[in-house]
Write a structure and sequence with these properties.
With 642 residues, the chain is an alpha/beta fold. The chain has 20 helices and 21 strands. It binds NADP nicotinamide-adenine-dinucleotide phosphate (NAP).
Length: 642
């Protein structure tokens, strides 16, 4: 399925082209035009873009380079138009390597080639499709899969299973697909990964209205994927999994479910894919008196739109990514707003965060063949491995409290400078907004200037004094101040490290998954858990990314691995696969060692990346390439097959 449009011939005049190019993202356009016209002289050494996001917009080009790149693009577009817009050829490997070299500089391109070709998918083929059918490899086998959750990961799993002809059902507790994009309806909710990249490889879309789309747009995208990929009829809405028990003799999972009409039912499946997400169970703060407050109060993930905030005294607790989005909008409505900040977030300057996709860019997607793919690829690459050196820990670095090494310190300098500019001469605000921990050890909050600007408003206060308790009428600080409130909004995050709660999962030998984890969830590749055969986790332990990639990329890797695992089982004529404990343990030791060499592993700041035992249980510490390589195939040696 593609949601992108076929390109149409160029009829624009030179003047119109000039105007269109004002909106172009130039490094990726140079590349697309080199591909389309075959003219590699467009890829000039002095126009090689800087590495990663930190290079800034337009690959870090200065004014002179922008002018030069625009001139080259204009010439190429004219020539292409005047030649009648011939259909371009697909570049061969040598040409691709030269293009990648222009974009990626001195990276080990050969190592990355297969991943890059997969991600780029220039020929439009769904290169990640399973390429096998249940009926072909095991015609007599019956294999049924239950997917828990119809959010982004669950839909991806369902699509791939359908392609392989493996029957499945999706159990979804909500009455619509979309997961987090269905649950979170707070004002201002939007994605914080560029949207062109935050989309399935198999359902790309070139007409996103915004650069970082809003919740409604994303929910529509996932809804239309469910419809167009014909997945909706497999979903049992309003249905919640309560318990899953593995029967070792029969090698099946028995699922106890509660249906939409409140009935208890039982269902059998050969495999279970948990696609319940990490950030789906709201976390209320452990503050005394939460129940005492007499006015309306709610968590950001359960936004109560019936509460009119106009003219009210509103208190918000929390300054994470969710609050970063809704606080400025609440400030527009409230008579007075107090925002309680326990830990300041680092702001990632993103000046176009709230912008529509410029008209010229939309035109280029429609008229320059492959530009949409090259642009997506550019976003993929600039948001990928290039950022990892910024989160390296340098053991000899003398200032671990402010940064984890020289590269991380450089990020700190840049982000601090941004805050200084935004705060102007308001030193008191600057002091409050500058975090006291290394950047990127906690999830950043994207900002186009609106966060600092909100706290400059007369009726908005950023309170950094601790909370003693919630009272009937508001909030009492540890200094004894009473902050009166009509409404309290909790932007206090999610129970991220309590994977698969509140379900009960019982594996081999009657082991309870949560007892086995004992508050410290681990999995092999974030996907399989010893003693719990044929249970596959998506967005499981240590698969969250901090600075590189999009979570959709990870989910697609996980789905590839699940499909490869099912194929391995069927080809071997087996019914179940149980991850070997030694393989799982060795893998997790490596993950822990690698995480401790990342900023978030070394820093001591509060973060949902760390579980109650103090272990980083959320994050993937490596490169995208490593995860992609490790999830290409399932190795029978890693499993007991029975
Ligand atoms: P969060 O990042 O965990 O933020 C929770 C906030 O509540 C923090 O500021 C935290 O302070 C504060 N808090 C928690 N308990 C508190 C207490 N007892 N007293 C005072 N303050 C307390 O949660 P979130 O903002 O919902 O975001 C979670 C994750 O969801 C993000 O990191 C991101 O990955 C994802 N997300 C993404 C988007 C997007 O893509 N647009 C939007 C929203 C969320 P401390 O920092 O001191 O713990």
């Amino acid at each position: 399925m593609t949601l992108s449009h076929p390109t149409v011939p160029i009829r624009a005049t030179d003047d119109e082209l000039r105007r269109i190019l004002e909106d172009a993202e130039l490094p990726s356009l140079l590349v697309a035009l080199a591909h389309v016209t075959g003219d590699e002289s467009l890829l000039q050494d002095d126009l090689r873009p800087g590495a990663g996001l930190l290079a800034g917009p337009q690959g870090g080009y200065d004014e002179q380079k922008i002018e030069k790149a625009r001139g080259l693009c204009l010439d190429a577009l004219r020539r292409y138009r005047d030649a009648g817009c011939p259909a371009p050829e697909l570049p061969d490997d040598d040409r691709l390597r030269r293009i990648f070299t222009f974009m990626m500089g001195d990276q080990p391109i050969d190592e990355y080639m297969p991943l890059l070709q997969d991600e780029l998918a220039l020929d439009g083929a769904d290169v990640r499709a399973p390429g096998w059918q249940l009926g072909d490899i095991a015609p007599d086998a019956s294999f049924f899969v239950a997917i828990i959750g119809a959010g982004m990961s669950g839909l991806a799993a369902a699509f791939r299973l359908r392609q392989a002809g493996v029957p499945f059902v999706i159990l979804e507790k909500n009455d619509e697909v979309g997961g987090t994009w269905y649950d979170n309806t707070y004002p201002g909710c939007r994605v914080d990964v560029p949207n062109h990249f935050y989309s399935y490889s198999f359902a790309q879309k070139d007409d996103w209205p915004q650069l970082f789309s809003t919740q409604g747009v994303l929910l529509d995208y996932f809804r239309s994927c469910a419809d167009d990929l014909d997945l909706r009829r497999h979903v049992r809405f309003g249905t919640e999994l309560r318990e899953a028990v593995f029967d070792e003799e029969r090698r099946v999972w028995t699922l106890a479910i509660r249906t939409a009409d409140g009935k208890e039912e039982s269902l059998e499946a050969n495999a279970v894919i948990s696609a319940v997400g990490q950030l789906n169970r709201p976390k209320m703060p452990e503050i005394e008196g939460v129940e005492d407050f007499r006015g309306p109060s709610f968590h950001s993930a359960c936004w109560d739109a019936s509460v009119d905030l106009a003219g009210k005294r509103v208190v918000v607790i929390g300054t994470g990514a969710s609050a970063g989005q809704f606080v400025p909008i609440v400030a527009d409505q409230a008579a007075h707003l107090h925002v309680f900040q326990r830990t300041a977030p680092w702001l990632l300057p993103t000046l176009d965060y709230h912008d529509e996709v410029p008209k010229g860019l939309q035109w280029l997607y429609r008229h320059v063949p492959f530009y949409s793919q090259w642009y997506r690829f550019w976003l993929f690459w600039t948001g990928a491995e290039g950022l990892l050196p910024m989160v390296d820990v340098d053991e000899s670095w003398p200032h671990p409290e402010r940064s984890s090494g020289p590269a991380n310190d450089m990020v700190r300098e840049m982000l601090t400078l941004y805050l200084r500019e935004q705060c102007g001469d308001d030193d008191a605000l600057f002091e409050k907004l500058v975090p006291d921990y290394p950047p990127l050890s906690k999830r950043f909050v994207r900002d186009n200037g609106i966060w600092p600007a909100t706290f400059k408003r007369d009726h908005v206060d950023l309170v950094t004094t601790g909370i003693e308790r919630i009272t009937e009428k508001g909030v009492r600080t540890v200094d004894g101040d009473e902050i009166p409130a009509d409404v309290i909004i909790y932007g206090t995050g999610f129970q991220a490290s309590d994977f698969l709660t509140p379900m009960k999962v019982v594996g081999r030998g009657g082991r309870d998954l949560h007892d086995w984890w004992d508050g410290d969830s681990r999995a092999y590749l974030g996907i399989t858990v010893p003693h719990f055969p044929n249970l596959f986790l998506m967005y499981g332990p240590n698969t969250n990314i901090v600075v590189n990639g999009s979570i959709i990329f990870f989910s697609e890797c996980e789905v590839d691995y699940v499909l490869a695992s099912i194929r391995m089982l069927l080809e071997n004529g087996k019914g179940a696969m149980d991850c070997r404990e030694a393989v799982h343990d060795a893998y997790n030791q490596k993950i822990d060692a690698s995480n401790s060499a990342r900023t978030w592993g070394a820093a001591t700041v509060n973060t949902w990346y760390r579980n109650a035992k103090g272990r980083i249980s959320q994050n993937w510490p490596g490169t995208l390439l490593e995860y992609w390589q490790q999830t290409r195939n399932a190795d029978p040696a890693d499993y007991e097959l029975f």
